[in-house]
TrEMBL record:
Family: Belongs to the leucine-binding protein family.
GO term, biological process aspect, one: amino acid transport
Limits of the Leucine-binding protein domain: 31-366
Superkingdom per UniProt: Bacteria
SUPFAM superfamilies assigned to the protein according to its UniProt record, in alphabetical order: Periplasmic binding protein-like I (SSF53822)
Keyword field contains Transport: yes
Source organism: Roseospira navarrensis
InterPro entries in alphabetical order: BCAA_transport (IPR051010), Leu-bd (IPR028081), Leu_Ile_Val-bd (IPR000709), Peripla_BP_I (IPR028082)
Protein's recorded name: ABC transporter substrate-binding protein
CDD domains linked: PBP1_ABC_RPA1789-like
Keywords: Amino-acid transport, Signal, Transport
Signal peptide (residue range): 1-27
Pfam families: Peripla_BP_6
Length: 387
């Protein structure tokens, strides 16, 4: 009787062990779910389209190489059309129904800010591809971002303006999330760079002509440079109207237009326009010993081989950086557990991405400094490094 009972216990124990091994094996086979919401269509499609293409391309490559910590990656994506309400709805779905392990995305500052309360409450890591400094200042425990901030863009632009012996600046800013945020940042940091804001105009995302605002700026005494915080079609219209009115002062755009699409939209009027951007746009023009060159050249050649010559943009680079930082964090943690990955993201040191060298900390969820920006000028329809 005792022997039969002992044998039964052994069989139960063996079955439990087998079930445990099977469950563990199944867990290893379960995909790591990457959630994403991007503006693939609509007014910000020039941001979201290359971001989605980048995520799809590199997730496919990672899976082809055996996945991440032995598990395949699964991308679950929703197109927001740059609508903050849609972003909130989709983020809720990603978190509650799709049960994603991380969210990579948010093409714009507005859509990103709309979902931050949700990811903070759910305690799931979120890496945004949007520019506003408000995304990471003040620091939110579960929120990170990859692009340079609007405040950094203001600083880089003002440094260049001062290097030209100029100081009296006019702003013409979009009233969307990014334009509004960058205008505020430029206004705040101007005194630290000995810059005086002598005119301050705005335009709505739906405006198709900015002649009235630019005429006011032109009639303002002493304007030495014009800075246009904004993204989308607005900056291209500003650039065309600026040329039509015959301005004889420099025009600066933000990194929100750092793609060939802007040059195509603005046409010949873009000649001489300067903007801060990542090294990705001038990858081939970087010195051979530049430590960022291998990364940006690798991404550029891979992307353009699949999507066409000249199609690379800094915005796809933001997605590359976000995915690769997540990959590094998961590998460092040895798990896709959200809390462990969050800690590993915050501990990233010396990660070289398309935006620059990233060193995160508990007080800095971006990890870039002003040196990561390159000042570029548009000449004959192409980007040139400003020496």
């Amino acid at each position: 009787m005792v022997k039969r009972f002992t044998r039964a216990l052994m069989m139960v124990g063996a079955a439990c062990i087998a079930l445990g091994v099977t469950a563990q094996a199944r867990a290893q086979e379960d995909p790591i779910r990457i959630g994403s919401f991007l503006a693939v269509t609509g007014p910000a499609s020039f941001l979201g389209d290359p971001e989605l293409k980048t995520l799809e391309m590199y997730i496919h490559r990672i899976n082809g190489a055996g996945g991440l910590i032995g598990r395949p990656l699964e991308l679950i994506h929703y197109d927001t059309g740059a609508d903050a309400n849609k972003a909130r709805t989709f983020a809720k779905r990603l978190l509650e129904e799709d049960e994603v392990d991380v969210i990579l995305g948010g093409s714009t500052t507005g859509t990103t800010m709309a979902v931050i309360p949700l990811v903070e409450r759910a305690e799931v890591p979120f890496v945004s591809f949007a520019g506003g400094v408000v995304i990471i200042e003040p620091v939110k425990p579960w929120v990170f971002k990859t692009p340079h901030t609007d405040r950094m863009a203001c600083g880089k632009i003002f440094e260049d303006i001062r290097s030209r012996g100029l100081s009296r600046v006019a702003l013409i800013s979009g009233t969307g999330g990014f334009g509004k945020s960058m205008r505020e940042q430029c206004t705040q940091v101007a005194p630290a760079h000995d810059i005086e804001i002598v005119a301050d105009e705005t335009y709505a995302p739906s405006d198709t002509d900015m002649v009235a605002q630019l005429t006011k700026i032109k009639n303002t005494e002493g304007v030495e440079a014009v800075v246009n915080p904004g993204f989308g079609q607005g900056p291209a219209i500003v650039t065309k109207n600026f040329a039509q009115l015959g301005f004889e002062v420099p025009l600066y755009q933000s990194h929100g237009v750092a793609s060939k699409k802007f040059i195509e939209l603005a046409g010949d009027a873009a000649e001489g326009v300067r903007l801060p951007a990542s090294a990705l746009l001038v990858a081939e023009k970087l010195p051979m010993d530049d430590p960022q060159r291998p990364v940006v050249m690798g991404y550029k050649t891979t992307y353009e081989a699949e999507h066409g010559e000249g199609s690379v943009s800094t915005f796809g680079g933001h997605a590359y950086d976000g995915l690769m930082m997540y990959k590094q964090a998961v590998e460092a943690a040895g798990t896709a557990d959200p809390a462990a990955v969050r800690d590993a993201l915050e501990a990233i040191q010396g990660f070289m991405g398309t935006a620059g060298e990233v060193t995160m900390s508990a007080d800095d969820h971006l990890g870039l400094d002003l040196s990561a920006f390159r000042m570029l000028e548009i000449r004959e329809g192409d980007w040139v490094l400003v020496e």
